[in-house]
Amino acid sequence: MPISWHGVFPALTTQFHSDQSINIPATLRHLELMIEAGIHGVITLGSVGENQVLDYEEKLEVLQAVVQHVKGRIPVLSGVAENTTRKACAYAAEAQQAGANGLMVLPAMIYKSDPRETMTHFRAVARASTLPIMCYNNPPAYGVDITPEMFADLADEPTLVCIKESSDNVRRITDIYNILGDRYILFSGVDDLVLESVLLGVKGWVSGLVNAFPHENRALWDLATAGQWEKARALYRWYTPLLHLDTKIKLVQYIKLCMAEVGLGTETTRAPRLPIEGEEREQVLKIIRQAIATRPDLKALSASS
Fold first, then answer.
1. The domain spanning residue 217 has which CATH number?
2. Where do the DSSP E strands lie in 139-261?
3. Is 1 domain-assigned?
């Protein structure tokens, strides 16, 4: 199905059994709950989906299961996060065969490529399939920055259609628009910068905390894109302590702990990630439980819009 590049696209978590084997039924149950909450698309096997700790065959297993479950109701994108360009190209081609509607492509993992190497990587993956691609730019996490000028250089690749802007610098949104106009569709990729990003013109939001709070996530998006700024600000202020968790090194553990606290999954991750404990755990639980205790009445908020 063609991708309508707008709205909330969860970075889907991968659920595991207690022995850290993949729990496909639990992953799909969780996805279905988010579909019912009104997500516009889904990204499987991104950073939050623990792409880098899954075997190549496991990634295809998860992707195929998601595609079969969704049955064309929403677009399905697959993360492409491999250590080599050759393997990323191979995965892109296999993802297309598995039925993915698009790809979210990261720079090659581990090695910190320079601009020439980075653009060569993206060009190669872009030509490995005919699927439309969301370019994931997250220099704080991966140490590789795709600047607006680099995106201008890549603009002749027709399958590079969207940018997930996660540089942690909202100035980039305006810089990209000023340099490239509407050549690329922009998505916000930083949960606690989404309201600012909507104001600056992004068309979508790749979110992590949506895994635990899908209804609030959708409500915030709807209020912001409708220009209901006062109500959006109020909801954002409630949500922001949770959204900050998406910007930490242990975001996967934190998001899965949120899911466990609200009954939408387990906190099990695959090693080397381990459950958080001690004072760190208590601090995160305090944030989560305070949010649950003060959860806004979305029906009342909607009725007053």
1. 3.20.20.70
2. 160-165, 185-188, 204-207
3. no
